[in-house]
Amino acid sequence: MEPSPLERLAQACGQEFKHLMAARETTARGLEARRAKITELSVQPDVSVVLMGSWGREEVTSGSDDDYMILVNGAWRPEHEVDPSIEEVAKVLDVKPGREGLFGEIAYSDFLEKRIGLQEDDNNNLSRRMLLLLESQAILGEQSYRLAWKKVLDGYLRDTRKPRGAPRLLLNDIVRYWRTICVDFAGKQRKRRGEGWGIRNAKLRTSRKMLFAGGLLPVLECAPLTPEEILAFLEHRLRMPPTDRLAQSFLDAGAHDEGGRTLGAYDEFIGLLDSESFRKALEALTRDNAAASEEFAEAHRLGGRIQSGLLALLFETDTLPPLVREYAIF
Amino acid sequence: MSSTLTADRRMLLAHHPIGASTGYMQALRGDWPALVAQAVELSPFAVELSVLSESEVQGLERYLEAEPALPFRYLSIHGPSKGRTMAERDLVASLLGLAARADAIVMHPDTIESPEAFLALAHTLVLENMDAGKSDGCNVEQLARSFAALPHAGFCFDIAHAWSLDPSMGLAAELLDAFRSRLRHVHVSSLSPELHHIPLTEDDEELFMPLLERCLDVPWILEAPPREI
Fold it and tell me: Are B171 and B158 in contact (CB under 8 A)?
């Protein structure tokens, strides 16, 4: 099998990303187990069950949740007409829905694809669309999932008029999603009175930032392509886990050492996240007591390195800075 | 157009973040507010507060204890490399106090007598490669010994020090190959024949740039003022 971009970067920079590689293996084993269990459910041809978050990023660790949605490839229909049901899937996966009602729900590809922007594109619709595009894996109804995924991507690209250039609608939505996450972080802080502040802050500095960059870079890299080439390029690139997308961007930019340090810092964070005591320490932290926490200091340190590496890639390599200037600000 | 852009990008001062070492501001030595003010003029993003002599440590401690509002995103402190009289464990205790306000504490590996005393500095400790005037901490083998004893320590790549030992820059490349995953920041300057840091010359900038381009994600600290343009 051809080595992944992450493996090729590891070779180029003389580093091993052992925690990320272990997380990929854990993800693969977990997906296999869940796919084997969930096949007992009957599924309609236009329905899929999709895992998101660390499953989509192939970064499953011991503390990862089974965040899922039931995805209907098409228009809305009553919940009782969708097979499998939320209850059936929740029972098989042994999970509860998320607090914001984002997970453990039915999503309709027509809403995700056709409601881009304006009032109907609420926070949940935007988040589901981005999670689907950037960090998702089907465990049931793979074909239906693929069709819905491509339909959502097409939703961004089909009105393209220019012969070449980065797809601005998708670019703007990816940037909007990242900024929404950042603003919602503050909103959750107020709503939950600081509960869970430490772990959310740590993930914002690391996993969320990696996901944003892993969406932004492929879209910027579309700039020299024709609309037909863009579709094929994004279908290929966005199906990779974000760490592969980023590793590929570092490789393409010739920034092997910088890529090694950036992915190395993230690898270290994933290794720490696999430790229950590290997670518990961060989960217990509030903004007020974070400064005294060694665990938070570690997350802060690693987050800083990740950001420095990503900024160097975007602003100091040969090909990307003109694209950032052309597309990423206005 | 593209060649102009490339040339601009390659200029030292185009890097972000760049920062000043207060070590070259000799006229202001001991006056920390004035040293910081001058460093900010070069860059408010990164700085190295230099206490090359042990006698300067207390002054910096007092300055930082007052919790001055500093703008820097990256703050390094260069630990003493001369005038050492303090017991090593007392020095480390002082550095630990300073480390609470710093991202990095830079030490010359040849000045460390008992590495175990420095283990407490963990990731904050950064070891710098030495110049041709030193007999330890200069090459891959010597530094590897130091890093083996201090496994969490980062690497401060002093490109001019490496040049002093091998003007072909072969050693510099070897050091980066060996310790690139530990790299935390870079010291940039040229060296006088007496191995004193002097402003980076145009020739050295051209010679150093291929290696500096392997260090785009870390601060570059100028150990001498930028040359007049």
Answer: no
